[in-house]
Please model this.
Amino acid sequence: MSQTQLGIVAVVGRPNVGKSTLFNRILNRKIAVVDDRPGVTRDRNYMQADWSGTNFTIIDTGGMVPQSSQKMEREINRQVDIAVNEADAVLFLASADVEPTDLDCEIAKRLRKLCPQKLILAVNKTESPSAEATMQSYWNLGLGEPLGISALHGKGVGDMLDKVIEKINAAEKKKEETDYAVKIAVVGCPNAGKSSLVNKILGDKRMIVSEIAGTTRDSIDTSFNFGENLIKLIDTAGLRKKARVKDDVEYYSNLRSLGSIARCDVAVLLVDTARKLSEQDMKIVSHIRSERKGLIVCWNKWDIIEKDGKTFDSLVKATKNEYKDLENIPMLSISALTGQRVSDVIKLSLKIKENSKKIIAKSELEDKFFLWIRRNPHPYIVGETVRFLGIKQQNDTYPHFVIFCTNPKRVSQDYIRYIKNKIYDAFDFVGSFVVLDFKSPGRSGAKSREEFEGNSERLAHFDEE
Model:
């Protein structure tokens, strides 16, 4: 699998110099999680941006601490190294509220070795007049002219971006809209193994993987090729219960994760095999269903549990019996660590996306529908008979059907489930949430009286068989 790339710009520097603020300034919207605490940006965060008609990818990175012995900071440094290696331009961001620190000097030395031709030095927080004197000291880093900017107010950012564009290949000035075979969001509760799964699929440690719950705080997108298919993969911050969202950082990350579900075609709900589906998992399922997205449930860490040939089948049966919303949702047992059945996640996502767009021939749909209701009529209701008159598929990105009947509000939930299951079985919509709307024939958009009379005759024909 090879990652697809545009012109790329990496924003790097020590902690708390305003990298994420600059990232958001360039994008004109709040994407990276911003907070006054150092180290709030811990993964590489990729987004599309443009300046003066040139499109590029910008990478927000964690704060560099090159000689740190702390595990998390070593992982951040690795992320920065990968970002610098794949970038066409590297913005080294410092802060004008102090002269170059020992850490600034150490980072500058490292960047001179890694990418001397890519470097642009920008000094942030130049809002006050006193910053001018501090600015001069940044010449001592040996990186050329320091560009004074204010990411917070926008001062000097345009001139800085002009320098960035000079370092991006002119052939990449126009970004064509990408046609993805499928867009997949990897979702779940914190520490279910989402980043490990993404890394296994992509084949590099693009995202920080740690046993510390919540080490992915932003939703991060990556494009890659799977055979002849271009896939977009979205790894999301772990979705926590509202009561457990203790600060603004987790609050914004939760919102961003929900937004990632809205942007995907298929959501992969990752569940730690060591535990059952939780209430929070089912709330995520409910949100996926409300967004009309496809769903796969993946039981991760399958390699570490004791099992036999019946373990997975028993787990699936018990889960679907307990949660009827998952009755027609496919489940996989995987190991993000070993790669066991990881490729099946992509294959199944492609199948769900393709099948969700399937248009059923009108005659085939109606023939099967009238056969189903003949063989299993709706339960009789005194004085309010439910009589089915027709079915029509809607032109949507998910399986959506309108069923015309008398007394539509009286259709029982059991019968709705019966019709849905018949549709799943007949037309292979497994993995998508089938949506049924029940309407009376007199409502706006209903079929003509002649069509309903024709369907009534067809139903009578089935009754005579």
The two ends are 55 Å apart (CA to CA).
